[in-house]
Amino acid sequence: MNNTTNTTSTVLLSPSDSLLTGTFTYGHSNNFEAYLKELGVPYLLRSLALLASPVVTISKKCPFESSVDEGCLWKIRTDTIFRSHEAEFKLNEESTTTRMDGQTVRFTFKKEGDFKLIEKQTNIGGPDVSTDIIRDFSDSSKMKVNLHVKKVNASSVFYRTDKS
User: Fold this and answer.
1) Which residue stretches, if any, does this entry annotate as coiled coil (predicted)?
2) Confidence class for position 149, pLDDT limits 50, 70, 90
3) Is 24 exposed, middle or buried (CB count within 10 Å of its CB: 0-12, 13-18, 19+)?
4) 150 close to 129: Cβ distance less than 8 angstroms
């Protein structure tokens, strides 16, 4: 008989956390190609990215039932017809991942207020580039994404496809 206990549970999310989690489908973007070019993404991959209609799923699991984010494992999964990417992280802790363009990056997420997840990415190897990605969930029907690299700003809007 197995007497092990699984201590990881899905937390009942606070109202603000329920806005930060869910499934979001791409709506539109502004200046995204210039952003990708400034990141150093090759032309062919930029062209494919502009054709993609990503679906982003954000989830959160915590080691115990609590409304505090400490120790919680977040996951952001992005699916396109070309590629998929998944990043797991804890808030305010540095992690590494390989982006869809093949670039390995260090990244850190922090939560700002109740409605924003802010990601800072820095390349490991390759061009010396950092980018800030701000995901804003203040409107419960969508996720607004603001992207900044060097002097280039871009934005995207994703519409919630699940019920919050």
Assistant:
1) none
2) very high
3) buried
4) yes
What mean pLDDT do residues 71-90 have? 95
How far, in Å, CA of 89 to CA of 105, rounded? Answer: 13
Kindly list the structural domains of the chain, giving each domain's residue range(s) and its CATH number in brackets, ordered by start: 15-160 (2.40.128.20)
Checking phi first, is residue 7 left (phi over 0); if not, alpha (psi -120 to 50) or beta? alpha
Give backbone dihedrals phi and psi of 48, rounded to 5 degrees, phi first.
-65, -40
pLDDT in tens, 107-120: 999 999 989 999 99
* Tokens at 85, concatenated: 């990417």
For 44-53, the CB contacts below 8 A with 24+ separation are 45/100, 45/101, 45/102, 48/82, 49/100, 49/101, 51/82, 52/26, 52/80, 52/81, 52/82, 53/25, 53/26, 53/80, 53/81
